[in-house]
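Progress narrative, Year 2. Work on Putative cytochrome P460 from hydrothermal vent metagenome advanced from sequence curation to structure prediction during this period.
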Amino acid sequence: MQRSIHFLTLLVLGISTAQAGSSSVPPAPNGIEFPTDYSDWRVISTSHRIDNKTMRVILGNDTAIEAARAGKTNPWPDGAVIGKIVWKQTEAADWKTAIAPGKFVHAEFMFKDSKKWAANGTGWGWARWVGMDQKPFGTDANFSQACITCHAPVKDRDWVFTTPAMLPVMHK
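Result:
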């Protein structure tokens, strides 16, 4: 457990500020701007997809973190933003039985605004930027339909796959 917490801390702290975005990162085709402050967000959870051998750190803005810690995620509150930072897995150089982040794949975000995105039936805005150069994913605003289709199995969980990781309560 201690190694897992240490690994997560190093992983999050190791997210390059170059990846954190700048005014040079173009918006997604649906107009969503890249959240340049995401590298300052806190961890909600992690996931590992065995089908495509990717590992993810799921981050949240303050609104998402507050909801996750309070168990108020179905539905997530308006203003919550969830980010998945995705790498291909690779064997850890100094720990052969562990996996570590390899090639950076993409950063994707879900923005909760039940009024703004009511028309898509989810209440979420979707965006993804690919590669280290953070190229917007998709050719037009309809790209997010692929996100919605993928997330349909969890529509009863407010369209979110992520299960917030439980943390021990620290007593002062």
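DSSP finds three helices and six strands in the chain. The two ends are 21 Å apart (CA to CA).
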